[in-house]
What does this fold into?
Amino acid sequence: MNSEEKTALQLRFKGTDDKVHTFSFPKAVSGLTTETIAEAMNTIASLGLFDRKGITLYVTAVSGAYVKTTTQELYTA
It folds into this structure.
């Protein structure tokens, strides 16, 4: 059985629909500071670039985190 671990930077924003939307970077630089993440998130939010069906997705920064996922292969034919 193989196991694979991946780390992604996930940025969470509140949209104009008042729901939380996640923007993920699977190849983000590790060790970014809180200040760097906050500045980047506020810049993304201020640009208003991402709309889907009339909803602006990234309006207000909510949180940023490195998220690790582990995939453990159980069966392969």
Remarks:
- The longest helix spans residues 34-47.
- The beta strands are 3-14, 20-25, 51-52, 55-56, 60-72.
- The first strand starts at residue 3 and ends at 14.
- The helical segments are 34-47.
